Amino acid sequence: MDDNKETLIRDFRTLLRQPSISAQGKGIEDCARIVKKEMDASGIQTKILPEKDGNPVVYGEVKAKDAAKTLLIYGHYDVQPPEPLEEWVSGPFEARVQGKKIIARGAADSKNNVVSFIKAAESYLKTSGKPPLNLKFIVEGEEEIGSPHLPRFIKENKERLKADSVVCYDGDFDETGRAKISLGVKGLLYVELRCKKARDDLHSSYAPLVPNAAWRLVWALNTMKSPDDKILIRGWYDDVEAFTPAQSRLVGKIPFRGENYLKEWGIKKFLKANNNREALKRYLMEPTCTICGFKTGYIGPGSKTVLPGSAMMKIDFRLVYNQNPRKQLQLLKEHLHTHGFDDIQVKPLGFLEPSRTSPSAPISKAAVRASRIAYGSTPVILPRNPASGPDYLFTKRLGLDSIWTGSGPPSAYSHAHAPNEYTTTEDFILGVKYITAIIDSYAKVA
Fold this sequence. Notes:
Layout: H1 5-16, H2 28-41, E1 45-49, E2 57-62, E3 70-76, E4 96-98, E5 101-103, H3 111-127, E6 134-140, H4 150-156, E7 165-171, E8 180-182, E9 185-196, E10 202-203, H5 213-222, H6 245-252, H7 258-265, H8 276-285, E11 290-296, E12 306-307, E13 310-319, H9 325-338, E14 344-352, H10 362-375, E15 380-382, E16 385-388, H11 392-397, E17 401-406, H12 411-414, E18 422-424, H13 425-444
Parallel strand pairs: 3-6, 3-7, 7-17, 8-15, 9-16
Antiparallel strand pairs: 1-2, 2-6, 4-5, 5-18, 9-13, 9-14, 10-12, 11-13
Helix pairs in contact: 1-3, 2-3, 3-13, 10-13
């Protein structure tokens, strides 16, 4: 792989230059075609499987000569919107190489990982002729919007997707530079709240006469979360399942240098945490309620005295194991009704269930061994990743053990989902070696 470094980076940058913004529907089909082209060129038997009302899934297979085991590898080719564009040091789809950095939307989340597993398959086919086990690949185009059509795809393709274990190759390194292996992810409920009180915005002098849509949303939000960061929706915590003693022991082994995050983010202290241990536990264990955006009235330069006729807000709720996003949605609707906010429309935009896999599962053991081979160090093992993804489709719908891992700078530093997202050339090459080592190790593990 080191001998082919320039070719690997060239193909990576080709994929980065193609926009694939699922939230805006930009460049999706063109990007799927590029992924297929790179998979075909690597020797993977590849198909683009159209999704009714959704973005296409790129599916591929590589058969081993005699292997009985099959490993399913998941990734996604879609990316987050690049805005605000004025904060980028170069075009978000320019894929500029600046020193050791490759700067582009998708550089760390997660086109680096997609190209890594494509190139891992290619290395087997060009050197050994066949991989040590059967490989199947799913590369979807809707992960960044909650994978709304992937459940149907999984249901309709159960036979095609038969496997023994899954690697969701869509992660990053730990802040210490070691591989990070997540044995599950948080779930997600993403909603849009809308309130409309007048046909149009009005002169603010009518405030004594006309309800203000912005205030209605603000008052509703005030009933949902307390100043001490507790979610006030009745029943929200009822199904929360605490960490087991084994999971708690894993948390105790995780290095967490909180001061590095504080410096990177430009803040003085963590919310409701007196030390690094408390911060880490909250980060991994607690459900969340986060305002992602608020749109109403006038926010341009200067002043404009206006009474907003409508207001809209987007909120995400991260969920922990045993919480169900559809049940939590119903709790939210009941809460708004109980508190007199029937004028607020709740529109669900995304559902992801939480997931988990045992640390003693064969794929978990294989990934630990692979980390030692690729990086020469023991990985950091998270009992739960604080982010979300469609992992539950593999663990719950297909009944398979699944881990979440990947390569690239820690998300806190790589600017994933923000301007100037990057990975490094070294991290990218290491990512190819890491997924190759996972395949090798899983082929050998009992």
